[in-house]
Amino acid sequence: MAKTRARRTTENLYRRFGFSLIAGVDEVGRGCLAGPVLAGAVILHPDRHIPGLADSKLLSADARERLYDQITARAIAWAVASADPREIDRDNIHRASLHAMARAVAALTPQPDLVLVDAFRIEGLRMAQRGLVGGDRRSAVIAAASIVAKVTRDRLMDDLHRTDSRYGFDRHKGYATPAHLEAVAKHGYSEAHRRSFRPATLFDTLD
Questions:
Q1: How confident is the model at residue 3 (pLDDT cuts 50, 70, 90)?
Q2: Taking the CB of residue 109, how many other CB atoms lie within 10 A of it?
Q3: Contact 97/202 with Cβ under 8 angstroms?
Q4: Which residues is 22 bridged to in the sheet?
Q5: What is the overall mean pLDDT for the chain?
Q6: Which of these, 6, 83, 106, 118, could form a disulfide with 87 (CB 3.0-4.6 Å)?
């Protein structure tokens, strides 16, 4: 389990200013060679405390799965949305990530009256928002969003592995590990890979 817990301090502060439905938004998979970038959006219930919330990167896989079950059972609302490799290649990873986050917020029912975003500002939102640097470690609601996004994306990558086991997506989830780079050098890119992400070590081996 992680030592650094995300707190509810930020959400409680904004509740005192009159905001009641506060969503956290975060994305996972920005730095991967393969698979979608996936965004989570969560509105936590202020009276349904979920102990142990933390940045998904600081948690074990078992802890993320346990917290995912609690978040999706106790939250007022939650949603996930993605941008696939073709959209990432067309629009660039930053814009594709923002699009996925906007879709996740739009899918929430009820809609929030405030959105807390890890680091970024999402264009086109109709409600108030605030970007928090390091938000997935500072804010419980952003941490919850990061966990929902991470667990959902890991499951998607496991599904991709069952479809095509050559790359080991079940182990590295699309990140550029040595084993993944070796598999790409041997087999080339699959439909799941982002063509705009080309490590320098593979320039001479990929078509």
A1: low
A2: 9
A3: no
A4: 114
A5: 93
A6: 83
Residues found in the chain: 207
Name the amino acid, one letter, at 73.
A
Amino acid 202: pLDDT: 59
3-class DSSP assignment, residue 60: coil
Q: What is the 3-state secondary structure (H, E, C) of 112-178?
A: CCEEEEECCCCCCCCCEEEEECCHHHHEHHHHHHHHHHHHHHHHHHHHHHHHCCCCCHHHHCCCCCH
* Domains recognised in the chain with CATH numbers: 9-202 (3.30.420.10)
Q: Residue 173 is encoded by which pair of tokens?
A: 């989830």
> Which residues have CB under 8 Å from 54's CB, separation 6+?
2, 4, 5, 6, 137, 143
d(CA 132, CA 164): 38
pLDDT score of 204:
47
Our measurement of the distance from residue 200's CA atom to the centroid of its chain's CA atoms, rounded to an integer in Å, reads 26
Dihedral sign, CA of 126, 55, 191, 199?
positive
Cα separation, 84 vs 16, in Å, equals 39
